[in-house]
């Protein structure tokens, strides 16, 4: 069975999901090619996107980058603008869940389950 890519965003300054944050998904290439935008999404009331960013069968070996529009979400309160998270898919059959915990002045991420 093929894996999938999902994410969610928590606003740690307010203690709730980050609704309405824009997210871009890029695929990166080590062959000297420019990164390619493959998906754009926005978080829902639960801080998640409505469907996996990459569904089963769409996830492939390689380097990817999620770019979270933190500045657009927090507005004038934000020190941060865009938060990029680069990661490697070395097993396309596995599930990759990349959460972002964010406040106007800092963030944390990890590989979730």
Explain the layout of strands and helices.
Elements: E1 5-11, E2 16-17, E3 22-28, E4 36-42, E5 62-69, H1 70-74, E6 82-89, E7 96-103, E8 106-109
Runs in which pLDDT lies below 50 for 5 or more consecutive residues are none
Structural class: mainly beta
Specify the helix fraction band. under 10%
Element string (H = helix, E = strand): EEEEEHEEE
Q: Residue-averaged pLDDT, rounded?
A: 94
**How many β-strand runs?**
8
Shape: globular
Q: Main sheet: which strands, in order across?
A: 2-1-7-8
Number of domains: 1
Major β-sheet, in short? 4 strands, mixed
CATH class: Mainly Beta
Number of helices: 1
* CATH homologous superfamily designation: Transthyretin/hydroxyisourate hydrolase domain
CATH topology-level name: Immunoglobulin-like
Q: Return the CATH architecture.
A: Sandwich
Descriptors:
single chain; 113 residues; mainly beta; Immunoglobulin-like; four-stranded mixed beta sheet; 1 helix; 8 strands
Description:
There is one protein chain. The chain has 113 residues and is mostly beta strands. It has a single domain, classed as Transthyretin/hydroxyisourate hydrolase domain (Immunoglobulin-like). The chain has one helix at 70-74, and strands at 5-11, 16-17, 22-28, 36-42, 62-69, 82-89, 96-103, 106-109. The strands form 2 sheets. Strands 2-1-7-8 form a 4-stranded mixed beta sheet, with no helix packed on it. The chain has a 4-stranded antiparallel beta sheet with strand order 4-3-5-6. The longest helix has 5 residues, at 70-74. The mean pLDDT is 94.
